[in-house]
Automatic annotation (TrEMBL):
SUPFAM superfamilies, alphabetized: P-loop containing nucleoside triphosphate hydrolases
Segment forming the signal sequence: none
SMART domains per the UniProt record, alphabetical: AAA
Organism: Roseinatronobacter alkalisoli
Protein name: ABC transporter ATP-binding protein
Amino acid sequence: MAGHLDIRDLHVRFGKATILQGVSLSVQDKPLSVVGRNGMGKTTMCLALMGMVPATGSARLDGQEVLGLGTGRVARQGIALVPQGRRMFPSLSVHEHLLLVAQRGSPPWTIERVYDTFPRLAERRKNGGNQLSGGEQQMLAISRALLMNPRLVIMDEPSEGLAPVIVDHLIDVLRTIAAEGMGLLLIEQNLRVATSVADQVSVMVTGKIAATVGAAELASDRDMQNRYLGVSHGH
Ligand SMILES: Nc1ncnc2c1ncn2[C@@H]1O[C@H](COP(=O)(O)OP(=O)(O)OP(=O)(O)O)[C@@H](O)[C@H]1O
Ligand SMILES: [Mg+2]
């Protein structure tokens, strides 16, 4: 199996502040979700893995060190990031966004499959990035990552701001991706998404992994949710 990621003792410092204080995580054959409250360091971890902020420690993709490589080389090694908050080019159409990253005809993800999976994007293929709803932008951001056919995809809060029916579709897509063998590291604050997609959920608290628990256990244990996330979720 490909797309295994082993993160060991990842540290990130901004000036005097240590934002990541020795994160260790492992994504093997199944997806892993990472949850945690605002400002705990989830996005910083994603950026560090992609070589977008300086970090120390180790991150091995299928045994090969990727930490310290430039972002382009990390991508070529097979890691794609769906960044938090989408970021489209307002002047490019949906189709142009997809063409920018599509490696022509290379399976499993092609532009045809993207349009098949997200019919809304097909309908809006000529629309500019600034004319899309939040949900459509998120589908486009996910599509761009999938079209790179990475060994591992990192998604930073993909369900943020999405309507519930779109979240249901997202869960289906993420399960399909994982079942096809793509590695998946899923950052989420939505517990339903985190626990529906992955069997294991790691909890980040102030730049460290405080615990890794079974998804079913976390989904049913309000005390644990309050302890780690500080909020009580409706379902
Ligand atoms: N460029 C930066 N310079 C200094 N501090 C930063 C920088 N970027 C992030 N931080 C700080 O790092 C900490 C972690 O932020 P990060 O964005 O990684 O959290 P997060 O877990 O992704 O939060 P959220 O759930 O809100 O997305 C925060 O305290 C934030 O203020
Ligand atoms: Mg974040």
